[in-house]
Amino acid sequence: MMQIGQKNGLVLAVMLAALAAGGCSKGQQGAAGAGAGQMPPAEVGVVTLEAATVGLSTELAGRTSAYAIAEIRPQVGGIIQQRAFTEGGDVKAGQTLYQIDPASFQNAFDSAKAALARSEASLATARLKAERYKDLVAIKAVSQQDFDDAQATFKQAEASVAADKAALDTARINLGYTHVAAPISGRVGRSSVTQGALVTANQATALATVQQLDPIYVDVTQSAADLMRLKRDLASGVLKRAGNGQARVRLLLEDGSAYPLEGKLAFTDVSVDAGTGSVTVRAVFPNPKQDLLPGMFVRAVLETGAREQSILVPQQAVTRNTKGEAVVMVVAPEGKFMPRVIKTEQAMGDKWLVSAGVQPGDQVIVEGLQRLRPGVVIKPVPVGAASAPAASAPAAGR
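and the corresponding structure tokens:
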């Protein structure tokens, strides 16, 4: 009897323990379910949009070209006696670059000088004779015919003197041309001839080329459509001219570095290239150290004006929908968010210039976009203050 009672008590104890374990498990499941229903709102970093005046610029590709170019050609023929410059060096305007053998030109000059002296002597005699005959014809001491002949001889002597003076000037000029001088200051390139070479007047091949590099031109091309739109915006007042109305230009070199000196817009071409539909725009840059050489590829940043009441949106906040439209997430009331399609015009550093879709005062989500799901409640905080998602959140979701 005692054994049967002990067995019954043991069974009852096991049943009570099982009931207690089941009640504990249900309590834990209920607690977990209550916690899942009360998840805290997801923190997202936002920026509040503001309107401001933004300076607009256009980046265009182009190449450098010399400010002035002079191809050196001889104006008289002869043998090169001397080359008086160093290839690749700097020369001054008027500096002698080549010396042509002057012997024959010196002889021509001396001959012209002697001919002028002879004609001037004949002129003096003819003048005296004409003056005497003028007095003699008045008293009938000589005939009218003799007087007329004396006057004609005098006029011929004057003409001979004038012709000989012109010949002497020509000889002097040709003699001077034996000194081939630089017409401009700049840097001279390689020489196409050496000492002893025979050159001819106005030959097709240049002896050398001198290029003025300070200042230097930068020629870029801009589409005619962009140029017309820029003019319309300036005329309508959407864009304001920057500064005193003279556009400033900055330069980016081929390696991406910025050129330290600022240039100015010189002119815009008056015709459109029929093949490309573009217009050439020329800027002038100072080049005191001659870091810029003709033919270099560069990118010019032209300041086109300033736009008032402009809105800039961080590029980090902009995504694309299936239609390819730019979209941002905007904070809505009661911890909600909503997508907005925006219209971007151009990049301004790490921001987009936006012309439609958002207004000043809108809060755009920049950080925490990966936490946005349908039905999620958000807590907007300033950019940089949003905390990282809790490490236990995925486990709780599971």
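(Above: one complete record from the training split.) The helical segments are 2-36, 103-138, 144-177, 224-236, 393-397.
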